[in-house]
Amino acid sequence: MNIAKTFNRFLTVLLIALAISYLLFRYFSALPLITVMSTMVVVGMLAGGMLFGIVGLFRSEDQNRNLLLVLCACIFAVGMVEVLAQLRQAWAVPKTAARLPSESFDMRSLAEVIRDKRKAGELVYGYVNPVGFGIEGLTPISDARSFWCNESGAYDGFRTDTFGFRNPPGLLNDPEFRPRLVALGDSITAGCGVKDGELMVDLLRAEFEPATINAAVGGSGPLQQYAIFKEYMAVFKPKLVLWFYFEGNDLGNLENELNESYLKFYLERDETRQLSQQQQRLREELVRWHEKSLAETELPLRVGLQKPVSSILPWENITAFLMRSIILNRAHYLAKQGTRPRAKLISVYSELLSQARDTVANWGGQIIVVYVPEQARYSEWISLQPLSHRDAKQELLEMFQRMNFQVIDLEREFQKQVEDPKTLYPTGIGTDVHLNAGGNRLAASIIIKDLRERTLWK
User: Fold this and answer.
1) Residue 61 belongs to what domain range?
2) pLDDT, tens only, 374-429
3) Most buried one in 257, 371, 407, 435, CB count within 10 A?
């Protein structure tokens, strides 16, 4: 009997059967649907199984045996890398738990938190960035009690303002209010994982300039932030814009954003959609989408601690593994990356900043860039951010210098002022993305000191 050919056929049938069974299970299961990454695996299993079976029929027994050995070796090698990466992430959970009060270590999903809060009679929503889901708008649900991130162990709710930003209630309701300082950025600037009053923009407002607005949106990249700038800065016209650049994913997010026609509108056309005058309609559309997503699946955005794989049901185990796969995340990013080199991304980023600088100058304002480091820079582990471009720092600093932008370098200051910068993040293990309360306080103090030394604020 030709053992190699028999095994080859068996493996082919098994792969196809597993893929079909998995698709049927996901279709009829009440568990959350899987993302593009898992779909890539299923399609890969189908295509690989059929290709492997067809090619094997035309090869000799020795060739089939060698092919099987190579295939098994590759699967084993990739599997070991992935298992080690998964174990590394799982290690962060007990480490975090040990540093937090047990009652505040919340392992629920975002959807579970929303459902539990609503059962208790509180109308709450998930903090969801609408970009990428085919929904009009640039900001999360406005005027809503929102929950988002548990990277520090607990879900802390906050209320969004009339535009969907994270600011104190009523701050923007006064028609006479004119902000002097506005912060643009992503989830770090928006305060993921910290309570109201602890995020750096709140500290800037409390200790430096009361007329400060946080216009950051979690999950945004430079192009979405530029779109927010065009839509809302004309309303605010601040004296100073602090534009936060996060080395962990901003260039990678820009790569993805250039594939979004809704965002490219702001790059290609010198006009806006007047979103600031349509907040009620935008809110209603996003709420409808939110409720549909909450009823049918899980909410698509969750940042923070993950349940250990061993605590999940068998089929959900596969889901969790695929959803958190380091290799699949990086492969997914590379597949979407296309052919744009880093120099092209930096060029586009430069164009965005140049246009924004000229706009601000027209009303007598100024932009300062704040460079934010990722935690992996201080860790012995590789970055878990598949979009990371931290090795591009020198290129970016040179670009800022050529454009005459002043830069507040938090990465340099963290190194100078803290013996172990990992303590500025929730666990300090390498899985963290966002600053903890102490990290936010240090960042705010660095920014305040820098602005005062530049005599920008009188």
Assistant:
1) 3-99
2) 988 887 554 545 556 778 899 999 999 999 999 999 999 999 999 989 889 887 65
3) 435
Q: What single-letter DSSP state applies at residue 267?
A: H
Q: How many domains does the chain have?
A: 2
Residues composing the chain? 458
CB 163 within 8 A of CB 232: yes
CA distance 263 to 136: 10
Work out the mean pLDDT of the chain and round it to a whole number.
79
Nearest 10 degrees: Cα torsion 49, 53, 55, 59: 140
- The pLDDT assigned to 43 comes to 59
- DSSP string computed for 300-324: S--EE----GGGS-HHHHHHHHHHT
Asked if residue 213 and residue 131 are part of one domain, the reply reads: yes
Low-confidence winner among 116-130, 374-388, 436-450 (lowest mean pLDDT): 374-388
| CA-to-CA dists, residue 441 to 78, 196, 241, 410, 424, angstroms | 41, 13, 19, 12, 9
pLDDT in tens, 24-40: 554 444 333 334 444 55
Pick from 159, 158, 162, 203: nearest CA to 181: 203
Quick one: 55 and 147 in the same domain? no
User: Exposure string (b/e) for 241-255, b if CB count within 10 Å is 16 or more?
Assistant: bbbbbbbbbbbbbbb
- The CATH number linked to 417 is 3.40.50.1110
Which amino acid makes up residue 221?
G
Query: Domain ends where: 99, 120, 143?
Result: 99
Domain end call among 70, 99, 128:
99
Contact present, 113 and 284 (Cβ < 8 Å): no
Helix axes 3-28, 36-56, angle to 10 degrees: 150
Residue ranges in 237-299 assigned as alpha helix (H): 250-257, 261-268, 279-296
CA nearest 96: which of 390, 307, 399?
A: 307
325 vs 264: CA distance, rounded Å: 30
Burial readout 192-220 (b: 16 or more C-beta within 10 A, e: otherwise): bbbeeebbbbbbbbeebbeebbbbbbbbb
CA-based end-to-end distance of the chain: 89
**Under 8 Å between Cβ of 200 and 440:** yes
Residue 335 lies in a domain: no
Q: Are 242 and 446 in contact (CB under 8 A)?
A: no
